[in-house]
Every structure is written in structure tokens, then in C-alpha cells.
Amino acid sequence: MPEFKTLGQFIIEKQADFPFAKGELSRLLRDIGIAAKIVSREVNKAGLMDILGHSGAVNIQGESQQKLDVFANAQFISALRSGEECCAIASEEEEDVVGLGGSGAQYIVAIDPLDGSSNIDVNAPLGTIFSIYRRLSGDGSITMEDILQPGEAQVAAGYIIYGSSTMLVYTTGKGVNGFTLDPSIGEFCLSHPDIRTPAEGRIYSINEGNYIHFAGGVKRYIKFCQEKDERTYRPFDSRYIGSMVADLHRNLLKGGIFMYPATASSPKGKLRLLYECNPMAFIVEQAGGMASDGLTRIMELQLSELHQRSPIFIGSAQMVRQVEKLLAGNEVPTFEGVENGLKF
Ligand code: P6P
Q1: Could you write out the DSSP letters of every residue in 8-69?
Q2: Whose CA is closest to 33, among 248, 182, 147, 194?
Q3: 319: nearest Cα among 263, 270, 252
Q4: Fold observed for domain 203-343
Q5: Is 270 helix (H, G, I), strand (E, B) or coil?
Q6: Which of 292, 237, 247, 288 has the alpha carbon at shortest distance from 269?
Q7: Residue 70 needs a FRET pair 20 to 30 A away by CA distance; which of 177, 212, 235, 343 works?
Q8: CA 243 to ligand 1 center in whole angstroms
């Protein structure tokens, strides 16, 4: 068990890793941690309160907003607004960028406040995913250039998983560390220092219900995972809970690959590049893994719109490389190709 250290102590200790921050990033991560504790409290008692079910609103994605989605979005925006280190937020739950004013604030946060919300009323794990960027424009109003920065420009990224326990996992580009919430003291405590993901894994995570719509290379990889071959420990295990944070967190710790390819209903993939794919890619790469859209490294993809989607293949490096090879075979897809990333 690592020495006892709270998230706050750890952030301050690692402050020196961040040369140009005079504490602002530390305060930003602290603000996110505060909102995460509040959301965790509500998620953990959702079954007891009238907070289950739909708010009646619909988000930018046309998805019905569960009450907890709305609550989580409000909590993170409020915490970041009062922390005064963030000048703008791009949220899955907001059609446009939310400007926070705040003179001198240099950081932009892209966030999926509550990912996997379809799992809320079945008591399955949920998550929050966030990315942190520095604004490019010196001051004044925020530009879309400030917001649509490629994943490589992230200064920090993390997720919170609300599962059997609540964990915050983040990176500032110097490795990945995990903190478990101790409700008895209300602190995130260092529980998973320096997370490394195995180069090879035995878990593949994909919604096989979309099988007939996958490109041939994806179908070939799924069959590869299912074939018997003792030398390569196959068949692998299929694990898919329909909550990206939960599926990725398990694969990060145990080794494995998570795939959400382009499908007929989501020809550009389902997951959003800015606040789901990029932060997860930063974390997984920092832990020694890989993240690709099947052709291009996720963190090199150019963003042209706020809620842009992308196919994603992410996890153990060897497994991602295998899929890329099969996709490069240019198998004939069962639907027209996708614009960004894969070219069929
Ligand atoms: P499907 C949850 O809605 C989510 O955005 C991710 O958390 C999850 O990995 C994916 O969608 C599940 O999508 O189409 O398999 O239900």
C-alpha cells in the first residue's frame, strides 16, 4: 500500500513538475476534485432520491438527459467558476462553450460530466472525463482556436469512476496516478501510484451487437480474439459494460483493448474526440498504451467542431497495433467510409 497521501498533498508535491504553473493547475485539479466528491455523493444515493430517471431535457447530442447528468454538469461548472482558474468549459451537456469570464484565467476544461448515464438506474459504474488546455489567445474573449486544440496540446487529463469505490485518475504528462475517495475523511487518497498498462492484454471490449456493420478488419480482429491459440493465451475474454470509463479503467489496470469503431448508425464513431477520446488517449499513452482511430493517433487528430466524434481503438499497445494492421488491409466495409481518420 503506498504511503498515505491525499490528492491535495500529491498535487502540491508534484507542483514542480509543472514549470509555468504558479499553482493555478493545482487549484484547477482541486476544484475538479471538489465537484467529483459532490457528484459521487449523489451518484451513490441516486437510488434513494428522486434523482433517477430523465430530467425531460435533451442534450446537444439529442440524448435524453438523466437528472444526474444535469446535476453533474452544473456541479463541475459551478466548481470551476468559483475556482477562477478556468476561463471556458466545453461540456457534452452544453451546445456551446460556456465562458466563465474570470480575469487572467488561463485554462480551458473540456468535460463529459457524467459518461455512461444510461447505467444510472441499473447501478452500473459511471464516470466523468476531463481534459485541461491552456488558452492560446492571450486574453479577452475565448476563440474556437482556444477550444479546438488537438489532444497533443492537453496539459492534463483525467477521469473519475463512480463504481464500487470512487476513484480519480489523472495525468499532467508525467505518468498516471490513481486516488480512491475515502468517504470517512472526504479525501481522495493515493491508491494507484504510477499506473502502467500491460503491453499485451487478454480483454477485448466492443459492442458486438454492431458486428454486421463493422469494417472487415474489425471483424477479423474480433475473430482473432475468439480463436483458440494457447501460445498467445487466446481466446481472450470479452468484457463490455457500456460505460467507457468503467471499461477503460478495467483494461488500463489489467491490460486489454477498448474499441468503438465507426458503425452504420455512427459512421464517424460514437465517442467524442474533445472530451472523451483525447483525455482517455492522453492517460493511456502516459501509462504506456496506445490510442488510435484505426489509422491515426487520436491525439494528432484535428478538431473542426465542438462535439466531433471519432472511432477509437485504445489500450494495450500490441493489441492496438494488431487492429491497425488488420484495418490497413483495407477490408471492404459494410458501409460507406468515414471522413476523419479511417479512409476506406
Ligand atoms: P453503446 C455511454 O453512453 C457511452 O457514451 C460510453 O460510455 C460507452 O462506452 C458507449 O457510449 C456505449 O455505447 O452503443 O455500445 O451502447
Answers
A1: HHHHHHGGGG-TT-SSHHHHHHHHHHHHHHHHHHHHHTTTTTTT-SEEEEE-TTSPEEEHHH
A2: 182
A3: 252
A4: D-Maltodextrin-Binding Protein; domain 2 (3.40.190)
A5: coil
A6: 292
A7: 177
A8: 6
Which amino acid, residue 185? I
- Could you please state the CATH topology (level 3) that the domain comprising 7-192 is classified under: Fructose-1,6-Bisphosphatase; Chain A, domain 1 (3.30.540)
Question: What are the residue ranges of CATH 3.30.540.10 in the chain?
Answer: 7-192
The protein residue with its alpha carbon nearest to ligand 1, atom 2, reads 116
Q: Which atom of ligand 1 is nearest to the CA of 245?
A: 7
Under a CB-based contact definition with an 8 Å cutoff, are residues 280 and 259 in contact?
Answer: no
- Residues with CB under 6 Å of ligand 1 are 115-116, 118, 207, 242-244, 247, 270
Distance CA 158, CA 72 (A): 16
pLDDT averages per 10-residue partition of the chain, 344 residues: 86 75 82 94 72 66 77 95 92 95 85 90 92 90 94 97 96 96 95 96 96 92 92 93 97 98 90 98 98 97 97 96 86 35 30
Cell for 286? Answer: 502516459
And the C-alpha cell for 157? Answer: 487529463
